[in-house]
Amino acid sequence: MSTMSYTATARAEGDGRNGHVRTADGLVDLDLGIPSEIGGAGGAVSNPEMLFAAGYAGCFLSALHSVARAQRVKIPGADVEALVTIAAGEAGFGLSVELVATLPGVSDEAAEQLLAAAHAKCPYSRAVTGNIPVQLRRG
């Protein structure tokens, strides 16, 4: 049995959230800024929550397709929107996630089963389970 592995490499420079990130391959090369909603200047820059939302949405959609294939359910036109919220609390800032899946032509019961199975399979979901709240819902 062969082991598959991939390591993504990115470097942050500057002042962290008010800095710059770049992946080793140069495909991601972004200025970062703190959103105005949490006290930053905002503007036309990205932030870690945007990057996490993009990665989680893509990963979860892949897991959703994988479990749908295994259950012989067709999900053409499916998509996933990840809403990543950062908010101040008693222990400092924390994250929460809402994953909203659009599954045209799939019954509510089947959608619920697919979402639960994808959540159990997705590496992002497994990484955050027990650490941050994640809500799954159909869009």
Account of the 3D structure:
The chain has three helices and six strands; from the N terminus they run βββαββααβ. With 139 residues, the chain is of the alpha+beta class. The protein has two domains: 46 residues, N-terminal domain of TfIIb (Single Sheet); 91 residues, GMP Synthetase, Chain A, domain 3, CATH 3.30.300. The strands form two sheets. Strands 1-2-3 form a three-stranded antiparallel β-sheet, with no helix packed on it. α1 packs across α2. The longest helix is centred in the middle third of the chain and has 23 residues. The chain is globular, with a radius of gyration of 17 Å. Keywords: Oxidoreductase, Peroxidase. Its EC number is 1.11.1.28.
Assigned CATH architecture of the largest domain: 2-Layer Sandwich
* Count of individual domains: 2
Instruction: List unreliable stretches of 5+ residues.
Output: none
What's the story with the biggest beta sheet? 3 strands, antiparallel
Distance between the termini: 39 Å
Question: What is the CATH class designation of the largest domain?
Answer: Alpha Beta
Shape: globular
Number of strands: 6
Number of helices: 3
EC number: 1.11.1.28
Protein name: Osmotically inducible protein OsmC
Organism: Nocardioides zeae
Keywords: Oxidoreductase, Peroxidase
